[in-house]
Design goal:
Layout lengths: L1 H12 L8 E7 H7 L4 H4 L4 E5 L10 H6 L7 E12 L2 H4 L8 H6 L4 E10 L6 E6 L11 E2 L5 H9 L4
Antiparallel strand pairs: 1-2, 1-3, 3-4, 4-5, 5-6
């Protein structure tokens, strides 16, 4: 799963920043090759192939609502979501009585923009996440952080897209 998440992030990064959230279906590469042998050379030896989906229908930018409307056919083994987020240092929220809303976080002087990529496999606990912070010059930034603990609630929401 971590490999699929990293490959999707690399693909999305090639288009630059300032993109809307994007969802990818993960299909077993062996199944694709069995159905279309001519794809074998292009797919290499990856276990899963990511297939970009239509844009998410997120009313008022509400990703939770958009994900609640997603369901997958049995041929889909997993999914990966890519979204750009605002990250604040712990010191920026330490003295706050209430959590900062999105507008306040986006306007905070210590904010950093980042790309969060999260993926799950159907019926498997956990998942994989990757967080790449955007550098000041708009380039991809330093080596990404990795780990399912980066966005555990998002992984749960993605797993819920596989519930019947």
């Amino acid at each position: 799963m971590a490999t699929a998440v990293a490959e999707v992030e690399e693909f999305v990064a090639s288009a630059g920043w300032d993109a809307a959230p994007q969802l990818f279906a993960l299909v077993a590469s062996a199944d694709l090759i069995a159905a279309k042998p001519e794809l074998a050379a292009g797919l290499g030896d990856t276990a899963f192939t990511a297939v970009a989906q239509d844009p998410l229908d997120a009313p008022d930018g509400d990703l939770a609502v958009a994900l609640s409307r997603v369901s997958w056919p049995p041929e889909v083994s997993g999914c990966v979501l890519v979204q750009e987020i605002v990250v604040l240092p712990p010191s920026a929220v330490a003295d706050q009585d209430e959590p900062l809303d999105a507008a306040a976080a986006a306007g905070h002087p210590d904010r950093q923009e980042a790309r969060l990529v999260a993926g799950v496999l159907r019926g498997m606990p956990g998942g994989a996440c990757l967080l790449r912070v955007r550098s000041a010059d708009g380039e991809p930034g330093a080596e990404p952080l990795r780990g399912a603990d980066l966005a555990p609630n998002l992984l749960v929401a993605l797993q819920a897209t596989f519930q019947d």
